[in-house]
Amino acid sequence: MNPNQPIPKKIITEIIFLTNKLYLNLFFFIKNLNLVFQEEIVLSPKPRGFHLITGQVIKNFPIITGIANVFIKHTSASLTINENADPSVRVDFETHFNKLVSENDLHYTHTLEGPDDMTSHIKSTIIGSSVTFPVKEGKPLLGIWQGIYLCEHRNNSPSRKIVVTIYGEKN
Fold this sequence. Notes:
By secondary structure, the chain is of the alpha+beta class. It contains four helices and eight strands.
């Protein structure tokens, strides 16, 4: 296909049909689940760095099997799932991201709240605002060395709010 030619209407129609079919299937899948669990958790202020929060996240999980999503309601902190066994992983994360997105760079204009303002937003964008994982009978199906991290990018952070949502079936 020549990139300068318009896309044929038949292909556009097929794309729209398949997209609508996907959304309809997703709607019926979610609608037919037996249970939706949702909880907002307030995490106490933490120093800058990478903090394991798996225990706080799963503490009130109901006995269901499904998919869990954890979302952070902030733009200067993020969430990730990664190795939880060796504490040096957390140090390496912090070191790497501070080199990758340095507060010493002078090109940032969004610095009203300090030199860590824009850099925190960039780090949050790179890492992400949510994690998703399977749950079976109320237990997360994470790997043996995996944990859920709060990635705090601010030097002086406030408390953080996360929302845990599980779509699933009662066991």
